Structure formats: C-alpha cells, structure tokens
Amino acid sequence: MHEIHTTTTSTTTSTMDVM
Fold this sequence. Notes:
The chain has one helix at 9-18. The chain is mainly α and 19 residues long. It is flat and about 15 Å long.
C-alpha cells in the first residue's frame, strides 16, 4: 500500500496502511 501524505488522503491512507 502506497502511503500518500495529502491534506485529505492523509487520514484515509494512514488507516488503510495499517490494514
């Protein structure tokens, strides 16, 4: 999973990155 740090996607990607 590519962790993309963005204004909105930051929270979404962080949660999905854990899964």
